[in-house]
Specification:
Elements: H1 18-23, H2 25-47, E1 49-51, E2 57-59, H3 65-91, H4 98-131, H5 144-174, H6 183-186
Antiparallel strand pairs: 1-2
């Protein structure tokens, strides 16, 4: 067997239908997480810093540079991670080793759960700093829209990353029927199958052939006449 029903994936080496792949809930959540991370990252980088009558730029979140740096870090790493796991999802069916599939699922569970927590921290941190920001610190309301966008999409990212964690846990719980795999599959190698034998079960075949005389050679010899004795 070659990977039937292993951690929610199909047969190893099977053709992947792009349309079916795009309609999967995990793919939709992955794309949404990528978009949300991009919005958080781009909002802070582009309009998260304002100039208040000097050459020095200040973070719009209560002039706290740590808030902006944290938001940029979470958004950028989340953006890259979504791209990586998207490719992993697309190539997951081509992984023949059960151990490698299990490792990939465990990495996804750990990272997705951890990043959902980091986005929760980001949401709380940005909301706290934004609530302490006064109108005097933002002349002409500069950067206000970017700050609100970063906060809102940090909250949305909590939901999508939590959803990805749940989906990964579901795939892990599906597991695999270990009876469908040979020892070579468990070790990550390709299975080797012997040539089929036509001999009945329980009988052994000889590797060397013994000479057998053609049939009917002895019976074809001319019979000899014996004189009866009276």
């Amino acid at each position: 067997m070659d990977g039937v029903g292993s951690f929610g994936a199909g047969r190893t080496g099977s053709t992947i239908d792009p349309i079916s792949f795009a309609k999967q809930p995990q793919t939709i959540l992955r794309v949404l997480s990528w978009i949300f991370s991009l919005v958080v990252f781009a909002s802070i980088v582009n309009e998260g810093y304002v100039n208040m009558g000097s050459e020095r730029l200040h973070c719009v979140f209560n002039k706290n540079a740590d808030a902006c740096n944290y938001g940029v870090f979470v958004g950028l790493v989340g953006l890259l991670a979504c791209s990586f796991f998207f490719l992993l999802d697309y190539k997951f069916a081509s992984i023949s080793s059960v151990k490698d599939r299990k490792k990939a699922i465990m990495v996804e569970i750990g990272f997705s759960g951890f990043w959902a927590f980091l986005y929760f921290v980001s949401f709380c941190f940005l909301v706290n700093q934004w609530s302490q920001t006064t109108a005097d610190e933002l002349p002409l309301n500069q950067g206000a829209d970017a700050a609100r966008a970063a906060i809102a999409f940090s909250f949305f990212s909590i939901i999508t990353w939590a959803g990805l964690t749940v989906r990964a846990v579901q795939k892990y719980l599906l597991g695999t029927d270990m009876t469908l795999f040979t020892t070579e599959h468990m070790d990550g190698g390709a299975p080797t199958q012997p040539y089929p034998s036509n001999s009945p079960v329980g009988e052994t075949t000889e590797t060397s052939e013994t000479y057998q005389s053609p049939p009917f050679t002895e019976n074809n010899a001319a019979p000899t006449y014996q004189v009866p004795i009276y």
